Amino acid sequence: MIPFTKAHACGNDFLIVPEEAVRLAVSSGRTVADEDWAALTRRLCARTTGVGADGIEFFAWTGPKASRVRLHNADGSVAEISGNGTRCVAAWMAEALASKPGDELTITTDAGPRVCRVDAVSREGGFAVQATAGMGIPSFARRTVTLAGGVSIAGAEVSTGNPHFVIVAGDANFTVGGKSWQEVGAEICVQADFPHQTNVEFVRIAGEHAIEIRIFERGVGPTASSGTGSSAAATAALALHGCVSPLTVTAPGGEQTVAWSGPGSELYLTGPAALVARGEAW
After folding, report:
1. What are phi and psi of 161, to 5 degrees?
2. pLDDT tens per residue, range 189-221
3. CATH says 2-132+272-281 is which class?
4. Considering only CA atoms, which of 222, 231, 232 is closest in space to residue 256?
5. What is the pLDDT of residues 36-47, one digit of tens each?
6. Which of 80, 198, 214, 275 has its CA 20 to 30 A from that of 230?
7. Which numeric CATH code is attached to 139-265?
8. What 8-state DSSP symbol labels residue 31?
9. Residue 175 DSSP one-character state
């Protein structure tokens, strides 16, 4: 049996699974092949036949307040980092360590280490935290992509440790080029212009300090929220569209706040994360 904890950040849900437990359950001492991790992820993340999640954070302690995670998307593919997934791991660590506001936890991802500061702890109806994560120094550049049929879409290519393409949409339905954001996201995600595929965010500027977004996540599809997606959308809005930090980013799953001083500086993402269930799976 493989133990898991299910957590979510603004509706973006993850399973946190001890890496060593998988090795013991699957391998009996042999090295676990990449396809084993991918197959296990697809099985556990299945919404109707598994536990259900957007991905799995495979977890290992590396120090008293430090861990190493490897993230697999729901389709089994490996992702460099998830901002929401990292914050879910921080919530799991905070509960295990009885963390208090002000405590800092270091989580090393495939995009590098991220420091999460616990801002608040709640034990009402379960364990939850409000946390601020350093998301690294984002990079960005204007870029235009061409959809099938020849429609050109202007946007920004942004890296927040993983790849994003950010588009400012023209209306409240987030349509682009006469197509739904889901249709455009699915097409851009797998375009040859992005050899490792890309996450796609659609932005509506709601004010100087506020944007609304929709997310088509690589390896998952439409999602309720994304930490790196919120960070990427905020980067484009702040750097290229006249918005001002701090910026509230509202996705269908809820609000997060981005603070960023501009190019060359680290971006900080603040939001909630809650533990919702524990169990064991085959």
Report:
1. 100, -20
2. 999 989 999 999 999 999 999 999 999 999 999
3. alpha beta
4. 231
5. 899 999 999 999
6. 275
7. 3.10.310.10
8. P
9. -
